[in-house]
Amino acid sequence: MSCWQRGSNVKEYMSQNPPGATFFLCLLTLALSFMVLSSYNYSHTLPNPDIAQDWNTLLSSFSQFHLCEKENASSAFYTSLIPPLSSTQKMDQKTSVNTTRHPSSVTVVHLHVPLTVTSSSPSAMLKDIGLFTTLTASQLNLGDKEPVNLALEILSEDSKHICLTISAPTNILPLNLFQPKCSASETNITNIPVEATNQLPASSQTCYSLHFKSDPALTVMLTLEEQRVAAQHLVEVAVCLLGVCLILCLAASLKNNVTRRDFLKVEDSQNEPLIES
Questions:
Q1: What pLDDT was estimated at residue 130?
Q2: Closest CA to 116 of 216, 217, 208, 219
Q3: pTM score, whole prediction
């Protein structure tokens, strides 16, 4: 009977104090939301919010450019900037990203990425060719004016992926991920030096456009330990909020009891005769 009475007291208090009731419902909703987020965190893999730049960002920035062929440019100069894949590839079974680190803190990375290439010239052959160019880190949203050498190998056996080779300072490149290996091609690759531009030129120069679709495999995800810690913090906050809600309920029930008791005392004193007969 006491619990029923206290429940009635809480109901009466909320009906008479809309601001307090609104505050209580907000706290309760927030606590339940944290519990749901904690459950979702346990059952789903989430991206790491501390990683501002990943390979999706880099490839998305790179795909905004048009690669136009340079006239009278030597392909030997550009190929010397990036070592051939066959000479730098490491057959490491523990990782699927081929990386070569040089003493000068420059990293060469070979990635099999979901990039497709189209040409402005109908007669251009989009197979067994290599496109070489150099950009600055700021153009790829990676840093300042550090040079970034890029090479794209377009092979005939895969039209939805290309082999992307990047040579850049180690400190500006995103974290390496477990991507499919970029195997050395057995066919002869025609190397074409290109220049990255934001707009297509008006001349009859052959240009190549890049098309990129975001790939979840290129996103840095939270580790299991990081997910466990995040879920634990959400549960702790939810329990604290539920505790505050419980304290508010107890305070509301006790306050109504005291108020009713004071009201009855005043009513009894008013009913007493002022002059005894």
A1: 86
A2: 208
A3: 0.61
